[in-house]
């Protein structure tokens, strides 16, 4: 079958393309911006890519068109598909009908931690000797690919609450048919498509309704929004994870005497089952790991085996990924784009580094951030940082309050120069954005290296 994918260079749609190719289909696709690394990955798979939306891309006519959720009415390619009545579907629906119907699906949902927890769970299954299928919305550290069909019954998927397509406004995860469902957390986000928190709860409950009664739902016992959503109706066995849950942790001190999440005991029903010692930090990652262990156990993986796998776990790209460590200066790239994620990320780093200075650099890039939905809670989120630099372009309609430890700039080059002037050895810099941030990562690390190389 010839499958043509509109919006192919997004992480999710690129994963769909890779899986379809692996299943033996001819795959082509297009996007407005065709550039590495996704374009390179797809081309290596033998997938022909078209830049833009010209109708010529439909020659020869594909058997079916998969339309990404970034595509909307008025788009030239979309209008061509509709006017010619070409068969079309969404990525989640195609995945459901062609792969998930006959698999043991382990789905990871939540406002925060989806990519990391999905990567952990996939790695546990892989390290245990299985060849699972998976689709991860990021680049995993322990695995060669972000998506594959796999061979064994298990399929691990990052269950995103964002809408499916312009013709299907349900959340993507409604299509995934989970046997094992992880509910990490639930907060208001995606203000561009959800009116309020209750609207998100409804979508989560739609997914809960699809879990069979012989499945398992792992829920965050400390999240009131998850609890309230389950109270709308649940027909599946549940296990809770959290301070008051079935699954609990005992944090252990690091070398500074702080509980930074780098070591913790795993407890189930008040029985200690083992200890995780890994490179991750932050209480949020501790509970991501605990969720992954619990989900793997439901799939038949012994807890000790799962713990040993997590001891070797490498963080996914852009999840507190250390991208520079020279001249006693450490720079991290992190995907945090919500006040809660920013808070937990910086708190974890603070517990790790003690009194060392932390410099936070933030781009409020998500649609929710741009709309100013979180402007009142954003300032509190970086209180663990000694200095914060925020990029805000002139088109944003809201402004941050002035603060002695806060610098707001509309010029990335200026942020780089100011950070380089401020930074000293033993500092830790965290760059937080869910986009490319104008190439600031390379610009900043090069500038730091030039400064301190010249000094030495």
TrEMBL record:
Cited Gene3D superfamilies: Mur ligase, C-terminal domain (3.90.190.20), Mur-like, catalytic domain (3.40.1190.10), NAD(P)-binding Rossmann-like Domain (3.40.50.720)
Signal peptide span: none
Residues annotated for ATP binding in this entry: 110-116
Enzyme class, broadest EC rank: ligase
Encoding gene per record: mpl
Regions that span the bilayer: none
Catalysed reaction equations from the record: UDP-N-acetyl-alpha-D-muramate + L-alanyl-gamma-D-glutamyl-meso-2,6-diaminopimelate + ATP = UDP-N-acetyl-alpha-D-muramoyl-L-alanyl-gamma-D-glutamyl-meso-2,6-diaminopimelate + ADP + phosphate + H(+)
The keyword ATP-binding belongs to this UniProt entry's keyword annotation: yes
Metabolic or biological pathway: Cell wall biogenesis; peptidoglycan recycling
Name of the protein in question: UDP-N-acetylmuramate--L-alanyl-gamma-D-glutamyl-meso-2,6-diaminoheptandioate ligase
EC annotation from Swiss-Prot or TrEMBL: 6.3.2.45
Keyword field contains Ligase: yes
Required cofactor(s): Mg(2+)
Domain Mur ligase C-terminal: 318-435
Record-stated family: Belongs to the MurCDEF family. Mpl subfamily.
Species this protein is from: Psychrosphaera aquimarina
